[in-house]
Amino acid sequence: MTSRTERIAVTGWGAITPLALDVSGTWQATLEGRSGISAIQDSWASDLPARIGGWISADIGAGLEPLQRRRLDRCSQLALLAARQAWEQARPHLAGVDPARVAVVIGTGIGGLATLERQHCNLLEAGAARVNPLTVPMLIPNAAAGQIAIDLGLHGGAHTPVSACASGAEALLLAQLLLNDDRADVVLAGGAEAPVNRLGLVGFAAMRALSCRNEEPEQASRPYGLNRDGFVLSEGAGVLVLQRSRDLRSDAPAPLGWLLACGSSSDGHHIVAPEPEGIQASAAMADALRRADIGVEDLSFVQAHATGTPLGDLAEAKALARTLGPRRSDLPVTAPKGQLGHLLGAAGAVETILVLQALRQGLVPRSVNAEPLDPAIDLAVVQSANLELAGGSTAGERYALKNAFGFGGHNISLVLAA
Question: pLDDT class for 391, splitting at 50, 70, 90?
Fold first, then answer.
């Protein structure tokens, strides 16, 4: 029998995204319907089939020490900056916390892809002597979690779930397990990715996963849209500070929101294609709702994974329809990747922060580029304008379901509250 899990408080958050360099800026840009996707003008992309991406044009190096700028892959740099934001915001709740009881869980789909590409080019063009001796510690997927633990002096364990596009959400699942099992008192959890480079773009384009609307980048990412033709590769990071409710300080600010439960399943179907009927994706959603001890009637909205691929969006829509039943016709569904693009391993964490913001403010962002909606998507997708939510439940809370799916058939669903 599925047991109810202990709710976990979110006491800090940080994000670096194609929309802004912090959470508040990302949220504001989301509400305004701005796009973080642009054309890549650099010469290295001139011969690629997909020459658009959600990348961070601002200089992120200003917040890093010179050695960190040289010795950390961009993926780790983004993760570290987001973690510092989250840690600083959570400080009022962290007084007296033992560093040996603070864990780090940072998911990623690939890790240091830019380092891999750059050093392989050095090897081919200039020989073995020109390969950076730090190549391996820069490109390994667990580098981001390790660098955060080093930077903040944390000793409660550093973990790295690598489950493709579900990695950031799976980090939250692992964080909840660590807290519920009393292996840590605080967990910094989230995801990071920096795949917008020549190798990343050509690799995903070769499998026909990317949109190639190079002449209209802001229109390219079209979750649930009738004319969707693939996702847009993006970079970024999101990190949340998580604590048990019983450990919160009474003299500190109220939590930013709550992680109630995490559900999971695996398609067991294909390494990249989703199971077409969404049966196991629906099972993950049902698992999360059972563990949270709420029903679909309690939900205020759903945030879909919806990447903008023809097969993936349809499979998720079928899974949601199966899970929601009659509520599929009136429960608002929002899809943020029309603005953010697909942050791969960072998506689950960044998008979770947006869910919590929406719950707190009672405002569900519209799904940019979802119009015209694919008639096969039998859901109440929020399209033309942001949607104002009615008041919370009788307990004064609102609830949302958030999905994250990844290559390999990884399915993660979260139930969040604020």
Answer: low
Cβ count near 219 (within 10 Å): 16
Catalytic residue list contains 269: no
Evaluated on CA atoms 135, 168, 13, 152, the torsion sign reads: negative
List all residues 6 or more positions away from 18 whose beta carbon is below 8 Å from its beta carbon. Answer: 36, 37, 54, 55, 56, 234, 235, 236, 340, 341
In degrees and rounded to multiples of 5, residue 328 shows phi and psi of -60, -20
State the Cα–Cα distance between residues 8 and 161, nearest whole angstrom.
Answer: 19
What pLDDT is recorded for position 2?
Answer: 62
The DSSP letter of residue 253 is: P
Please state the length of the chain. 418
Give the rounded percent of residues in the chain with a pLDDT score beyond 90.
96
Q: Which residue has the tokens 């970024």?
A: 236
Pick the catalytic residue: 75, 159, 262, 305? 305
Structure tokens at 238: 């999101």
159 in active site: no
Q: Given the residues 165, 212, 269, 270, select the one marked as catalytic.
A: 165
For the 8-247 domain, the top CATH level (class) is alpha beta
Residue 373 β-bridge partners: 225
Say which of 75, 93, 262, 342 is annotated catalytic. Answer: 342
Same fold, 8-247 and 262-417: yes
CA–CA distance, 70 with 73 (Å, rounded to integer): 8
Is residue 270 part of the annotated active site? The answer reads no
Residue of 34, 84, 99 lying closest to 365 (CA atoms): 34
- Region 369-394 average pLDDT: 90
Q: What are the residue boundaries of the structural domains of the chain, listed by start?
A: 8-247, 262-417
Quote the pTM value: 0.97
- What CATH number does domain 262-417 carry, 3.90.1150.10, 3.30.428.10, 3.10.310.40, 3.40.47.10? 3.40.47.10
Beta-bridged to residue 241, according to DSSP, are 12, 188
Per the CB < 8 A criterion, the answer to whether 307 and 165 are in contact is yes
